[in-house]
Amino acid sequence: MARPTHDEMIAKLTFTECYPHYVAKVEKKGRSIEELHQVISWLTGFDEPQLQEFIKNETSFNDFFNLATLHPNAHLIKGVICGYRVEEIENPLSQRVRYLDKLVDELAKGKKLEKILRA
Fold first, then answer.
1. CB atoms within 10 A of CB 21
2. Which Gene3D superfamilies does the record cross-reference, listed alphabetically (predicted)?
3. Which site in 33, 48, 53, 66 is 20 to 30 Å from 20, CA atoms measured?
């Protein structure tokens, strides 16, 4: 059986599956859930009640990002995450998920919110 591609694996993920990992990652490094939600909201346009609804409904990343209003400065997110240079990812869904991963990583690494939010 062929090994699933990176894009196929991303398409099967849900926001619900990844969210606890995001929380654990940022809290382990002394950052707050509020800061995490601020970062997610900046990227997607979703507020707290919407995020809770996505978690409860086990929303796929595909649906999550199809409903999102990506921040106009999202294209400024650059760098390597999970071995992929985010600005070079061609699949739009994979790129958006990796944008989110990159922002969570920056938050966990102690970067200032103004820098993370490309202000």
1. 11
2. uncharacterized protein sp1917 domain (1.10.8.290)
3. 66
